[in-house]
Amino acid sequence: MLNSFKIGNFEDEGVGTGVTVIMARSGAVGGVSVRGKAPATRETDLLRSENSVDKVNAVVLSGGSAFGLDACSGVVQYFHKKGLGYNAGAYRVPIVCGASLYDLEYKTFGYPNADMGMLACEYAHAFSEMNGSIGAGAGATVGKILGMKCASKSGLGVKCIKIGGLEMAAVVAVNAFGNVYDPNTSAFLKGATKNGMPLDIEPLLISGVEAPLSAFGGNTTIGCIVTNAKLSKTECNRLADAVHDAYARCIRPVHTAVDGDTVFVLASGEADCNPLGIHALAVDLMCQAIVSSVKDA
């Protein structure tokens, strides 16, 4: 499954944070779409369609907010030691993109550092389905309109699919201000609760529309679609845009002023695909991954 890629996780259970690394040793065409207003990201400008470098060696999803971007440095060092990266002349420069979510208030202050990023690379393995408080989802929570006291634990979700020669995985760490709902039934899955009862966040926001915004900051859902499809850099960016539909189907509200919602795409270019079909598949698979992320967290 997705033989050009590996995925690795490392977490610090005591602090309540972690990192997930998606590796493409030989490089993969990359894209990204950032919709939230409070992102913590690295090398997203490089993935714009008009910019020159189109192959990415790794995408790093981490906790720790902006501090957690330090995990990317460990991934860069891992690839440097392997002699892998973009041929810039005398040296190869590893292209490592990343995004971090805010989990600094989950347990105690701490964040994934360069050592944790390198360990996630060393522990990397073939893609498989997984979910729970692992990797970048170790400190993830959802439903934070009343702060952490009424939030619920979420985590990382990974779902995989193979259709003929086409392979795809959706990876997501859900740390949303909003609640998580079933995309098909709209049933409440995880989020804000009070006295054991779910709180519907959107009506609460609407009822307080004339008041100053006092919403709890420190959120963000970060994910990546990984595929063996033949996609250009522009197509990867458009696919990343489309996958935000999955966020909107499962998370309400989403893309808020206190979220930094981000989707990456990595494509290794081995299988033909229908552009419209792959958009629909990626959105559906990301929906499944989001639901999986809250299952056993």
Layout of secondary structure:
Elements: E1 6-12, E2 17-34, E3 41-42, E4 55-62, H1 71-81, E5 86-87, E6 92-93, E7 96-100, H2 114-122, E8 130-132, E9 141-142, E10 152-153, E11 156-163, E12 166-173, E13 179-181, E14 188-190, E15 193-194, E16 197-198, H3 201-207, E17 222-229, H4 233-250, E18 251-252, E19 262-271, H5 275-293
Parallel strand pairs: 4-7, 17-19
Antiparallel strand pairs: 1-2, 2-4, 2-19, 3-7, 5-6, 8-11, 9-10, 11-12, 12-17, 13-14, 13-18, 15-16
Helix pairs in contact: 1-2, 4-5
Question: Care to describe what's here?
Answer:
The chain has 297 residues and is an alpha+beta fold. The chain has one domain (6-293): L-amino peptidase D-ALA esterase/amidase (4-Layer Sandwich). It is 22% helix and 33% strand. The chain contains five helices and 19 strands. The chain has helices spanning 71-81, 114-122, 201-207, 233-250, 275-293, and strands at 6-12, 17-34, 41-42, 55-62, 86-87, 92-93, 96-100, 130-132, 141-142, 152-153, 156-163, 166-173, 179-181, 188-190, 193-194, 197-198, 222-229, 251-252, 262-271. Strands 1, 2, 3, 4, 7, 8, 11, 12, 17 and 19 form a ten-stranded mixed sheet that branches. Strands 14-13-18 form a three-stranded antiparallel sheet. β1 (6-12) and β2 form a beta hairpin. α1 (71-81) crosses α2 (114-122) and α4 (233-250) crosses α5. The mean pLDDT is 94.
